[in-house]
Each structure stands twice: as C-alpha cells, then as structure tokens.
Amino acid sequence: MAVMDYLTTRKDDLVGWVRKFSLFPYPFVTACCGMEFMSVSSTLYDTDRFGAALPRFTPRQSDLLMVVGTVSHKQAQVIRKIYDQMCEPKWVMAFGACATSGGFYRNYAVVQGVDKVIPVDIYVPGCPPRPEMVIDAIMMLQDRIANDKHPILPSEQPPPERS
Amino acid sequence: MPTFYEAIVDRLGPRCLRTWDSHGMLVLDIDASQLLVVVEALKADFGCALFLDVTAVDYPARQPRFDVVYHFLAPAQMQRVRLKLQVDEHAAEVPTLTGLFGSARYMEREVHDMYGIRFAGNADLRPILLYEGFEGHPLRKDYAMEHEQPIVPYRT
C-alpha cells in the first residue's frame, strides 16, 4: 500500500509538470486589456517561454480561460457557456481590473467581477496590468498546478465539479 | 445674403419657442407638435441631410421632466443644428423621425431603452442595448446607480 501511495505522489508530480507547461489559453477579449494581452503574448514578453502561448480559439481545446476586459451582463451568458464547454482540467484567469472586480464601472451594465459568474483561479489587477504581472500570474498558476493533486487514475476520486 | 443660421431663423423662427446660439451652434427650442414640420424643412430646404443623434436629458425636479435633443448636420455648409423639445414623464411621447431618416430607428430605440421616452410611429421599440426583462430606464436620474439586473444568476 505504501508503495502505491508513493507512486501516486510521483504520478501527481509528473502530471502536474506536464500540465503546467502545456497551458493552452483561450483569450476571451472584450476590451482594451486585449492590447496588453497582445503585447504579453507576442515577441517582447513572449508567454511562449512558459508553454502558455498558443491561443486556441475554441474553448474545447483550451484549458486556461483568460477573461481579458470588461464583462457586461449580456456577455455573462456567453462566458458562462464558454466555461461550461471547456474540458477538465481548466483554470480561469481574471485579467485586469474590470474582470477582477468590475473596475471603475459601477453601474447597471457591468458584471462586478467575472467571479460572480464563473470560478476564478487567479486574479491580475491593474488597468491594464503590466506584462510582468501577467507573467507572474502565469508562473504562480503553474506553481499551483505543479503542486496540485491530479486524480486521473480510475481508483482515485474525481475532483469535485465547480460551478 | 443671410448666413445659413439666419436663413433658418428667418424661415422657421415663428414655429419655434425660442432660437438661440450655443457656443456657435444654432439651437431651436420647439414644441413636439412642430417637430416633423421643422425637421422636414431643415432636410428639404436647408440641406440638413445627416441625422447625427437623438438623445434626452433628465431634469428630475423640473416640469416637464425631459428634454429630447436632436442634432443635424448640413454637409454642404458643414454646419450643425440642434433641436430641443420638452416632454413630460407621464406623456413621454414624441413623433418618430423614421419617415425622414432611416437611421432614426436605432437611435430612437436607444433613447427608449435609456429614458423610457416613446416614439409614436416607430414600430420597433424593442430593447437594443438592454435586454428583454430589464426593468426601468438606467439613464434616468432616479435609477439607483448600483442597481443591477443580472441575466446569469450570480454565484453565491
């Protein structure tokens, strides 16, 4: 039994290592933060160095949902559907002040933070965030994935469904 | 030779409640009943071929409560004209301009969304920026600033 436990922890390390370097982001870009996203993902700052560069423009092939910009109540239905379409394992990054908290939009139209609609793993403040902050957030998320449990064996309990 | 603005005032002044100059732009205060006549004359005789905007202003303490504001542009002269008329909250109805300018359809829908002013004759006043089921009119001053009406229920 002890051997199985040991193997299971090594398995988590291996799967975590694989997953953290193959983050496929889905950029859900709604506003001006998108300019910053382009900057951070292209040559100068280059998120490719972290294995998180190739945007998949379909939620079914991606595992990191980057919510970049303001989300209005009408957009909330769209983002909820996109989140539901993504396969496990999936993570969500709230990119910029509007996605984290609604930013300076406190009115009838704007969702006060995308975490009111979908669960968020990592928040990047700033209006817009510096590229360094985004890279820092990606690295923090990678650390978390590396140290996380990855129950993929049939004998293991599947992770609880998040809503 | 009268200037563009002088010619308009000469011709349409009697139909207006007041005509005045606001930072170099001609403003005509009119009654809602004169709207179609005045706009038709502006379009046909003064070359105001572009309907730029219609919006409203809310003065909660005033009677009647709303100003409806129209802007027109005469491209040949590059001159703008502003029309203003007042409507009451309980009879917030203005004739539509869709017969003269097709673009009025969408702009009037937006004003209907935001201020609840009806445009008699505009057959399609469905929400355009808001959504079905939204209650109230968010740009009215008495709409609470933090009042939200989420479509997707918030997670707890």
Description:
- The complex is a heterodimer of chains A (163) and B (156).
- Helices cover 39% and strands 11% of the residues of chain A.
- With 163 residues, chain A is of the alpha/beta class.
- Chain A has a 4-stranded parallel beta sheet.
- In chain A, helix 1 runs antiparallel to helix 5 and helix 2 crosses helix 5.
- The N and C termini of chain A lie far apart (34 Å).
- Chain B has 156 residues and is α/β, with parallel strands linked by helices.
- The longest helix of chain B has 12 residues.
- Chain B has a single domain, classed as Beta Polymerase, domain 2 (2-Layer Sandwich), CATH 3.30.460.
- Helix content of chain B is 21%, strand content 28%.
- The interface between A and B is medium-sized, with 17 and 13 residues.
Notable characteristics:
heterodimer; A: 163 residues; alpha/beta; Rossmann fold; 4-stranded parallel beta sheet; 4 strands; B: 156 residues; Beta Polymerase, domain 2; 5-stranded mixed beta sheet; two-stranded parallel sheet; 28% strand; elongated
CATH superfamily of chain B: NADH:ubiquinone oxidoreductase Nqo5 subunit
Which stretches of chain B are low in confidence, meaning pLDDT under 50 for 5 or more residues running?
A: none
CATH architecture of chain A: 3-Layer(aba) Sandwich
CATH topology tier name of chain A:
Rossmann fold
How many distinct helices of chain B?
A: 3
Write the layout of secondary structure elements.
The complex is a heterodimer of chains A (163) and B (156).
Chain A: H1 2-20, E1 25-29, H2 33-41, E2 64-68, H3 73-85, E3 91-95, H4 97-101, E4 122-124, H5 131-147
Parallel strand pairs in A: 1-2, 2-3, 3-4
Helix pairs in contact in A: 1-5, 2-5
Chain B: H1 4-12, E1 18-22, E2 25-30, H2 35-46, E3 50-58, E4 66-74, E5 79-87, E6 93-95, H3 104-115, E7 118-120
